[in-house]
Sequence to fold (82 residues):
Amino acid sequence: MCSTPKTSLAAKMPETPFRSFMASMTLAQRKRFAEVANRAQERRDSTEHYRQGLSSQHKSVTSLSLWEKLKQLCAQTVNLMG
Fold:
C-alpha cells in the first residue's frame, strides 16, 4: 500500500504564540490603518478605471477627425484640472 510520507520528527509548536500585527495596535491605530488602506484602494481603483477609459478612448480616437480629437483633448484637460 502507498501512503503519504511522514516525517520522523513531530511538528514543533513555536514557543511564543503567533499574533498578527493588528493585534498589537490600539483601536485608534487600527482605524487609521483602515482609513489609509481604503484610500489606497480607492486610488488603485481610480487609476485602473482611468487606464480602462484611456484604452477605450484610444480605439475610438483613430476614427475621429482632427477637430474632434482636439475637442476631446480639451475636454480631458478640463476634467483633469477641475
Notes: The chain has a mean pLDDT of 80.
